[in-house]
Amino acid sequence: MKKVITMLNGTVHVDGAELYYEIRGQGPALLMISGAGGDAGYYSESARILENSFTVISYDRRGNSRSTGRRDTKTSMREQARDAKALIDELAGGRALVFGNSGGAIIGLELTAAFPASVQGLIAHEPPILGVLPDSDPDRGFFAEILAVAEQHGVMAAGARFVQSVRGEGTYPWPTDVHERFLGNVTHLFTNEFAAFGDYTPDWGALGAAGVPIVMAAGSEDRGCNYFLPSIIIAEQLGLPWAEFPGYHLPFMERPREFAAALRAVATQMFSNAETVAPLWRSSAALT
Known about the structure:
The chain has 288 residues and is an alpha/beta fold. The chain has helices at residues 44-50, 77-91, 103-114, 142-153, 155-164, 176-199, 204-209, 229-238, 251-254, 256-274; strands at residues 8-14, 17-25, 29-33, 55-59, 96-101, 119-125, 214-219, 242-245. It is globular, with a radius of gyration of 18 Å.
């Protein structure tokens, strides 16, 4: 009989904020970082599927959903990386595998560059680092375009335009609570976060010297989209492996079972390369 695993939640105090987190499962720690909207609920279903292999940690990023933090102050990727490190220190004994999607992948890259000792390995799924695109690519102006819509027509219009840019959105329902929290985060996203994501440039030297295994990734149905190509360019720039995941930009929302299967395979291989058998995998009782 499969062991029933209870989801635990709580908060971690960081500089100027209380970060809401959820923990599910048993095994090596896997921190999952969300992008726009910053909500732990994006990963809830996938975490339930992965809980027999990993201790899955998800959280609401500062100023979003159930986390606190000033909503009148612009964030930086270094601040976001410090928040992720604080969660790893408090909940994972100082080191964890990290999965980040979209803006969460950008945070994962900054975390790895700034605090490599905290990262067992990083899977960066579709980071929208559009500055790495060729100068002639019109998608380089995407963030400026969305911010212009926010300034001229308001944040809800910007939110609608932003969602329209994400392939697959509108073809499946979001959980009601996640959708309601996302709507409550829209002003914070476009006022305090969006520009920092759009301006981000990887620290190539720090990433190259980090000594951390990194896998870049993108969704198979996002080929040709502005969220897809940067992952390949970054992989080529740093000589990293690249993996194609199922689905669109948010596969964990659209098809969580397929996504979780792909993530389990990549994360398990990444961890196994670091240790022959993880301590929490050495007893068959840990997998029952």
